[in-house]
Design goal:
single chain; about 260 residues; alpha+beta; Arc Repressor Mutant, subunit A; Beta-Lactamase; three-stranded antiparallel beta sheet
Length: about 260
């Protein structure tokens, strides 16, 4: 009887862990700029039945992580999610150390400047600062940038062991999709540029008309973040000028952030 009770307890514990994991995946579905998501859209993103999805959503809503929008059969983030996100950012030594440096860089070159870390297959923007007079750019804390298609992702991948790089590049080279070969070639070019000058760049591969100049920031424990300047200059000559002028300041900013974080 005791063994059966222990087995039942273990089963219930596993179910609880599974529900928690699924609940966290629900929260991951919400991206900056998405005011609300329908039950159908969340179920599609998670590849779950709608009944299961609705049960998870109702549980999160009951604990104030989500807010129901009944007339649209949708949900949006609620106060508990906001409090949790603010706690993460306000408690981050990396964000605190990087924010004034990003603002200095943004003002100096009239750019949008980002601090990014890797989250699964994306680079997650932790901090964003805009220089005075910069044009609007659809970036903010919480934005995700695909590792394979943007300079911040390429800069992060360059800092990783060869085995990790291979996990990304080998499937791309073996793919029958020509676009994957193009992405792989861009990554190799970025690696070359990082070796030569410490930064890499990409343009129009995340959104049309948006370019990135990125540099890695080595952190304690072998981890790494990336800082990036963002511009919207479509003319090739103008892009080259911005990249050339920004590179020294970007590298200086990366070094400053590295020292500030280690000092804390």
């Amino acid at each position: 009887m005791r063994k059966r009770t222990q087995a039942l307890d273990a089963t219930e514990s596993n179910r609880g862990i599974d529900s928690l994991q699924r609940g966290m995946e629900v929260l991951r579905c919400f991206q900056p700029g998405e005011n609300a998501l329908t039950v159908a859209e969340i179920a599609r993103r998670l590849d779950l039945p709608r009944t299961t999805t609705r049960r998870l959503l109702n549980t999160l809503a009951a604990h104030d992580f989500l807010f129901s929008v009944p007339d649209r059969d949708a949900f949006r983030l609620h106060v508990a999610s906001f409090v949790l996100g603010q706690a993460v950012l306000s408690g981050s030594e990396l964000v605190r150390g990087a924010t004034p440096v990003l603002q200095w860089l943004a003002n100096r070159h009239a750019l949008h400047c980002l601090l990014c870390v890797r989250d699964r297959g994306d680079m997650l923007v932790l901090a964003h600062q805009a220089g005075a007079g910069t044009a609007h750019c659809p970036l903010r804390a919480g934005t995700r940038l695909p590792i394979a298609r943007t300079a911040p992702g390429h800069a992060w991948l360059w800092t990783q062991p060869v085995a990790t790089q291979g996990k990304w590049l080998t499937p791309m080279r073996a793919s029958a999709n020509p676009a994957e070969h193009t992405h792989a070639a861009a990554i190799y070019q970025a690696f070359h540029d990082l070796v030569q000058g410490g930064t890499c760049a990409s343009f129009g591969t995340w959104r049309s008309g948006v370019g990135f100049i990125a540099a890695p920031v080595a952190l304690a424990g072998g981890d790494s973040a990336v800082i990036a300047g963002v511009h919207t200059c479509a003319a090739p000559q103008e892009r080259s000028r911005i990249e050339h002028e920004c590179t020294p300041a970007l590298l200086q900013a990366a070094g400053t952030i590295r020292r500030e974080v280690r000092r804390v």
